[in-house]
Amino acid sequence: MKYYIIFGPPGAGKGTQSYLLAEKFKLKHISTGELLRKELEQKTELGLLAKSIMESGQLVDDNTILEIMKKEICADNEEVKGFILDGFPRNLYQAKALDKLLSTSGRKVDAVISLEINDDLAIKRIQHRAQIEDRKDDMDFETVRNRILTYHKKTEPLISYYKERGKYFPVNGGSDIEKNFLDICEIINKINNE
Ligand code: AMP
After folding, report:
1. All structural domains of the chain
2. Which of 13, 46, 58, 98 is 20 to 30 A from 65, alpha carbon to alpha carbon?
3. Per the confidence metrics, is the pTM higher than 0.70?
């Protein structure tokens, strides 16, 4: 069972690439953002709790996210060859908790594939997405700005965490979807053949 993390700031294209990768490599795509938006849509207690945090561009509390994650990561079946984690982990606490969770059953993170893009491009992409998808946190400029700031402050430190462990694989996220996909496939094929 392989565990890949797709990493990058909001707007990097993590969702799009995860979808393509899940199809090609028979991976289960877990997007914590999507799971939270579903909770929100269904107006569950969790969804209502997360709503204002998501709309302010901050991170939902770690224990809530870890509970969601545990459930999803255990729900594997024979057809699934691995997982692609999108939007998780988002900070060091979550990264360490993931390592611990996987290690209890002899598993590990295989690779962190990072779509590297600059803030200007991230903002441009999010503004474009806002016209297509109905995401509240994409529509408000202040929220977008906060999400990018949160990324730099809380999520970016994970780069050294995974680099130190030899698991960080960057690609130029500024390329188009097809090129990004080819670059990522190359990395995954290499890892699968190791
Ligand atoms: P995303 O779709 O990944 O951009 O996530 C949308 C929002 O959901 C984020 O801005 C956070 O408020 C929340 N969220 C998603 N994943 C996490 C996570 N791993 N930890 C904390 N909050 C998260």
Report:
1. 2-192 (3.40.50.300)
2. 13
3. yes
